[in-house]
Amino acid sequence: MKSFFLVLLLTPLFGIAQQNPYFENEVTSITQKYDTIWDSSRETIVFTGSSSIRMWKNISDYFPNHQLLNTGFGGSQTIDLLGYSNELILNYKPKKVFIYEGDNDISAKKKSKEIMNTFKELIEQIKQADSKTKIVIISAKPSIARWNLKGKYKRLNRKLKKICTTDDNLEYANVWDVMLDKRKLKTNLFLSDGLHMNEIGYKLWHGVLKNYID
């Protein structure tokens, strides 16, 4: 019986996300950049997540009427963003956060349930910091390089969409469908690696995400 209660006592400790040291230098570089240009007196929108966000270098040009910070870090998974949520999200006190994660999680063979549990922790952290913050979860995207995993991505997207129905401050932005021509992937949206997008791809994303900015 004592061992049972000890397990209950220690269980929350295992849910605490640790900061992955692999990303430490990149996160430091991001925070140093915005330390010099972020205006804390203005409303802030944060775009964050893995390389599909990080590589959208001209994202601010698409939304010129907003103070927009791009804190994406390449190769990250949802658990990594949870570990660096203070540095990449909360410290900027955003009115809205756009999150793109899950892509690398699926590639790393994580189960949808595990990914969703981490998303829930991340959402709860943001809500605890400010219950009024709006959160937009961007669907996982299809790609040439990971097209063989499309079934798993679609399953994750269904779960992401469902969780966004549980809270008025959560929204789901579907970028999957616009990247397809019926059931076939639009292959002209990608760089030579078949994974990351070119400007054509980002223009399609803008067409979806602009509806969630205001």
UniProtKB/TrEMBL annotation:
InterPro entries found in the cross-reference section: Ester_Hydrolysis_Enzymes, SGNH_hydro, SGNH_hydro_sf
Gene Ontology molecular function, alphabetical: hydrolase activity, acting on ester bonds
Q: Which UniProt keywords apply?
A: Hydrolase, Signal
Q: Does the keyword Ion transport apply?
A: no
Residue ranges of domain SGNH hydrolase-type esterase in the record: 55-204
Sections of the chain in a coiled coil: none
SUPFAM superfamilies, sorted: SGNH hydrolase
Keyword Signal among record annotations:
yes
Q: Which residues form the signal peptide?
A: 1-17
The record's PANTHER family line, in alphabetical order, gives: THIOESTERASE 1/PROTEASE 1/LYSOPHOSPHOLIPASE L1
Q: What is this protein called?
A: GDSL-like Lipase/Acylhydrolase
Where does this protein come from, organism-wise? Cellulophaga tyrosinoxydans
